[in-house]
Structures are given as structure tokens and as C-alpha cells.
Amino acid sequence: MTGAIVTFAQILQAVAEEAGVTVDAIKGRAQSGGPARSNWPRQRAVTIGRRLRPELSLRRLGQFLGGRATDVVWSAVVAGERRLAADPAEAVAVSRVLARLGVESLPERRPHAARVRRLNIEIHAAEARLTALRAQLERLEG
Q: How far apart are CA 132 and CA 54, in angstroms?
């Protein structure tokens, strides 16, 4: 699957298989298996998801995870990144998930990707507004 776009559904499936839980358990609200059984796979999924699919917003990831709020998803991203950096066992687990996905390695973290995306949208809107103002000025002067 190298070179192909990996969907978040595929990421969820690979994480679930690696963790020995169902996708529904990762998406679900209940923590019947204890925090480690439900939160860690969810954190792993959003960490991998944010790296492999940086264009997916926190809101969209929350929709994939059973309608979770963006602040909850962000907390999972932060916790997952911290755990990945600090825990060699987590790095091994993530590597196994990537192997299931046919992905060689996890891209470097892009902490400002969302901000850059928002600024590009603002620039585009400002350019469109400037074009409209120039056209309006030409009509007034013409």
C-alpha cells in the first residue's frame, strides 16, 4: 500500500487488530476493558491518523470516532504523541500498525499544519476580497 492513500477507516481497522479490540470498541464511549484497552488504541489511531492524513481536521476525526468533540480528539492526539515519544513499546506497536497498512514509516510530526492551512484559507479569502474591491474601484473610476 506504499504510495496509496490510507483511509482513516483502514487506520482504525489496523489499530484494532493490533490492539486486539474491535473498531467499535475504539469508537465507543464505554471503557469496559479499562482505560488502557480503550484509550490507548484510540490515541494510537488519532496519532497515526494525524501523521498520515494531516488534511483531516480534528472535527472530522471526531466524527470517525463516534462523534467526539474536537477538544477530546486533541487531547487524544497530545497523549498519543507523548506516549509515542516516551514509550519504546508504543513505538513498536505503531510500527506494527504501519506494517499492517503497508506504510514504511510515520511521517514527521507537523505541529503547525492546521494553522498553516487556516492562514492559507484566510489569504485566499483576502485575495478574493481584494479582487472584488479592485473591480468595484474600477467601476467607480470608469
A: 32
In a domain, 3, yes or no: no
Number of independent structural domains in the chain: 2
pTM of the complete model: 0.70
For residues 50 and 77, the answer to whether their CB atoms sit within 8 Å is yes
pLDDT digits (tens, 9 = 90+) for 25-65: 999 875 545 544 558 899 999 999 999 998 899 999 999 99
Cβ–Cβ under 8 Å, residues 61 and 50: yes
For residues 17 and 2, what is the distance between their CA atoms, to the nearest angstrom? 19
User: Which ranges in 65-112 belong to alpha helices (H)?
Assistant: 70-86, 88-101
Same domain, 49 and 97: yes
